[in-house]
Specification:
heterodimer; A: 566 residues; alpha/beta; Glucose Oxidase, domain 1; TIM Barrel; 3 domains; 8-stranded parallel barrel; 45% helix; B: Histidine-containing Protein, Chain: A; 4-stranded antiparallel sheet; transferase (chain A); metal ion binding (chain A); metal-binding (chain A); transport (chain A); pyruvate (chain A)
Chain lengths: 566, 103
């Protein structure tokens, strides 16, 4: 895109393919303590804490489920006597109220971080109290996303999980953040909601609230006061998107080579929504959502009920009834209060995913037993897979346990391929299981030795990196040799160009957030298997991620490329 | 100042929900109460933040201290209840009015 003297353009990293035009609603950042300390006295301090506690309590009463619990816990922190006493002592010693709150919260945050585990997670709640009290003391707008009057583009430095959960989804057109990464929680949730999202958009917080912006997730651009030409483009893209959504036939290439197109889900509500789309089933049910924000593991009965609801949503479904359930993938960026051990130096390389079986074998056994019971209750045959498998022995042990609790034919037992060792020896793993599924986000993280949460290294995490593609190809080859399915359920499945490559490599199913399905379906439908194979060869022959992407792009039908803004 | 020891019965220790229920019950008594784990320093038992920071787990012994014997007894019983159990909210709820009567 050319940037002339006209509109201001901000460049970020796009997530999704959509394009919209709308007014900016700014989420206010967390306030800083002014250099002069700011106004107020001990009385103002007490009043601010009390007001914040009351507001949060009121919102907790109006909310439901996990959001209500987070809000209530935050309200309780705002009226904690020890926190208030600490801040009051600081004011008595001569600090300004704003300084006092900031430092008192810091002290507790430090204690919580040092304790690790569940307490370390609660630091977010402490910070949220700090920000709200400070904003009141300094006469600043309340931090977080404001109430939206009209459908808007939410612009923020970054959104906390609580901010994202509290979004009024029907009034959000797009999400743009200054920080964050393409695999962070904001991006993932935007994908689930089908909202265009641009992250790491340097400078975008300069745009005033109310200004019109055009957000293009396909190019990662945000244009202020877009010209009519750009607005027309947004309308045209929306029209094409609508048209694509009209295609509900099963995924296949132009010459009829089938590639199952599946949805990624996290909750029973997601399952209900996905069942109403043309997705041919669920390729990844992330069960950890059931375990997060809890102090103890859900019981066998609780789990059975949730799994039965998910399986029931697809039971006997004409458009495809496959549901692949992933067992608990806790640890690393998804700590759990009751299993995560504080103080692991390298949590991403530590006891996470299937490895939890070493410490808490009952957790996995209970989960598999609950799934077996849910399968029986609903008369369905789910597929089940374990995350973070590194060796053939682990795959064999997982399969044995699943069979033992009753997950036998026609249920299928498989494992995730996310660790390079599993990809390199995929044939060994596949001898013990019925299928494998590639988790490309973690596979890229472990192949490229790059922290998924480190936004500044996003280029290294690119699933188009030749080394990552090699491992995907090796896994697909092993599947073809043994005649067993190899799926992809990472974010790369949602990239239409990558979908051509994956189909060409022999991947049998692609699972993604439901919003990404129409574009992938369309691109596959417009190319034959030979073109997909040529795309796979071209990508594997490239020596860099950008070269690989460009080589494949050049093979795509230009008309389709324009329509999808590829 | 009276003291009483109690053994934590909540499966997940004095974290999250158990800590919230316990500190709410303490606050409802209107009496100053402290809690200590093992030989550690006593902290304000009405503060969720401080109670959670104790890191008291299932089976750990904690010492409660306050001026009111009746309150002490009720709160000790609460510590010795599994506050993660689904009906624990009711148990904590009934503890508070009884304490108001004694104070």
């Amino acid at each position: 895109m050319t940037v002339d003297a006209g509109p201001t353009t901000f460049q970020g990293v796009g997530v999704g393919r959509g394009m919209v035009v709308g007014p900016v609603a700014k989420a206010h950042p967390s306030p800083a303590v002014p250099s002069d300390g700011g106004p107020g006295d001990a009385e103002a301090l007490r009043a601010a804490f009390a007001a914040v506690a009351a507001t949060l309590q009121e919102r907790a009463g109006a909310a439901e489920g996990a959001i209500a619990e987070v809000l209530a816990a935050t309200a309780q922190i705002a009226q904690d006597p020890a926190l208030l006493a600490d801040a009051e002592q600081r004011v008595a010693a001569g600090e300004s109220p704003a300084q006092a709150v900031d430092r008192a919260v810091d002290r507790f945050a430090e204690m919580f971080r040092a304790a690790g585990g569940y307490l370390a997670e609660r630091v977010t709640d402490l910070r949220s109290v700090r920000d709200r009290v400070l904003a009141l003391l300094l006469g600043l707008p309340e931090p977080g996303v404001p109430a939206l009057e009209v459908p808007s583009v939410v612009v923020a430095e970054d959104l906390s999980p609580a901010d994202t959960a509290a979004l009024e989804v029907d009034k959000v057109l797009a999400i743009v953040t200054e920080h964050g990464g393409p695999t962070g929680h904001t991006a993932i949730i935007a994908g689930q909601l089908g909202l265009p999202c641009v992250v790491r958009t340097t400078g975008v917080m300069e745009v005033e609230a109310g200004r019109e912006v055009a957000v293009d997730a396909a190019t990662g651009t945000v244009v202020v006061d877009p010209a009519e030409e750009l607005r027309a483009q947004a309308r045209e893209r929306a029209r094409v998107q609508e048209e694509l959504e009209g295609d509900t036939a099963p995924g296949s290439t132009a010459d009829g080579h089938a590639v199952a197109l599946l949805a990624n889900i996290g909750t029973a509500a997601d399952a209900g929504r996905a069942a109403a789309t043309p997705a041919e089933g669920v390729g990844l049910f992330r069960t950890e959502v059931l375990f997060l924000e809890r102090s103890s593991a859900p019981t066998l009965e609780e789990q059975t009920a949730v799994y039965a609801e998910v399986l029931g949503a697809f039971a006997g479904r004409g458009g495809g009834d496959k549901v692949v359930v992933r067992t608990l993938d806790a640890g690393a960026d998804k700590p759990l209060a009751f299993v995560t051990q504080p103080g692991e130096e390298n949590p991403a390389l530590g006891v996470r995913g299937y490895r939890l079986v070493r410490r808490e074998p009952e957790l996995l056994r209970t989960q598999l037993a609950a799934l077996a019971q849910a399968a029986k209750d609903t008369g369905t045959s789910p597929w089940v897979m374990a995350p973070m498998i590194a060796t053939a022995q682990e795959a064999a042990d997982f399969a044995a346990l699943a069979h033992e609790v009753g997950l036998t034919e026609p249920c299928k037992v498989g494992v995730m391929v996310e660790v390079p060792s599993a990809a390199l020896r995929a044939a060994d793993l596949l001898r013990h299981v019925d299928f494998v599924s590639l988790g490309t986000n973690d596979l890229a993280q472990y192949t490229m030795a790059t922290d998924r949460l480190r936004g500044s290294l996003a280029d290294l995490l690119d699933p188009w990196q030749p080394a990552v593609l090699d491992l995907v190809a090796a896994t697909a080859r092993a599947g073809a040799e043994l005649g067993k399915p190899v799926g992809v359920c990472g974010e790369s499945a949602a990239d239409p160009l990558m979908a051509l490559v994956l189909a060409g490599l022999g991947i049998t199913s692609l699972s993604m957030s439901p919003g990404a399905l129409p574009a992938v379906r369309h691109l596959l439908r417009r190319h034959d298997l030979d073109t997909c194979r040529a795309a796979a060869d071209a990508a594997l022959a490239a020596t860099s991620a950008s070269e690989a992407r460009e080589a494949v792009r050049a093979l795509v039908d230009p008309a389709v490329r324009d329509a999808l803004a590829l | 100042m009276s003291q009483r020891t109690a053994v934590v019965a909540s499966l997940q220790g004095l974290h999250a929900r158990p800590a919230a229920l316990f500190t709410q019950a303490v606050a409802a008594t209107g009496v100053p109460v402290t809690i200590a784990k093992g030989d550690g320093a006593p902290v304000d038992a009405a503060s969720t933040l401080l109670v959670m920071t104790l890191g008291a787990r299932l089976g750990d012994e904690v010492t409660l201290a306050c001026e009111d014997e009746g309150v002490l007894e009720d709160l000790a019983r609460l510590i010795e209840t599994d506050l993660d159990a689904p009906d624990a909210g009711a148990a904590a709820g009934t503890a508070a009015p009884a304490q108001e009567a004694t104070s």
